[in-house]
Fold this sequence. Notes:
Elements: E1 3-5, E2 8-10, H1 13-19, E3 39-44, E4 55-60, H2 69-80, E5 87-88, E6 90-96, E7 99-105, H3 112-118, H4 126-145, E8 150-151, E9 159-161, E10 167-170, E11 184-185
Parallel strand pairs: 2-6, 5-10
Antiparallel strand pairs: 1-2, 3-4, 4-7, 6-7, 8-11, 9-10
Amino acid sequence: xxxxxxxxxxxxxxxxxxxxxxxxxxxxxxxxxxxxxxxxxxxxxxxxxxxxxxxxxxxxxxxxxxxxxxxxxxxxxxxxxxxxxxxxxxxxxxxxxxxxxxxxxxxxxxxxxxxxxxxxxxxxxxxxxxxxxxxxxxxxxxxxxxxxxxxxxxxxxxxxxxxxxxxxxxxxxxxxxxxxxxxxxxxxx
Length: 189
C-alpha cells in the first residue's frame, strides 16, 4: 500500500502498474521519441471506498535518470509540498529498484502546445493567451516565494489545461535530473 502525508504519498510500483493498466501503450499521454525519453501515462488510482477513482498522470523516468533513490525521494517530497491553484500538483512518487516515477493530478484537456500549434481549427484567442501568461506568472511567482525558484525547460508543453480549461503549470518539471538538464532561474522581482 501507499504511505502518505498531507496529500502526498509514496506509491508502490504495483499500485501504479495497476492504475495505468500495466503501463499500457494506449495510456501514454506524453510526446514520445528521442527528445522525450520519459513517458507520461494516464491512470486511475484504485480506491478502497466508494466514489470516483481519481485520475492521475504517472511520469516514468528512464532507468538511469535518477541513480540515487534517496535524492529522488527528497526532491519529490520537496515539490510535493507545493500547492497552488495554478499548479498541476504532484501527489506522489515511487522508488522501486531502478524505477523512478512521479504521480500528479491528471489534466484532461491537453497542453498549450497542442492548442496553439496542432489544432488549426481551434486556435486560442489573444485574450486567452494573455490569461495563460498571467496564470503561469502567478504559478512561477508562488514557486519562487516558496523556495523553489527554478523551473526547467518552461515551454508550451509544460502548460496543461484542467477539466474546465484552467491553465496549470506541470510540477513534474521541478524535478531536475542531474544528467543533462540545465535549470532556468525565474525571478519574481
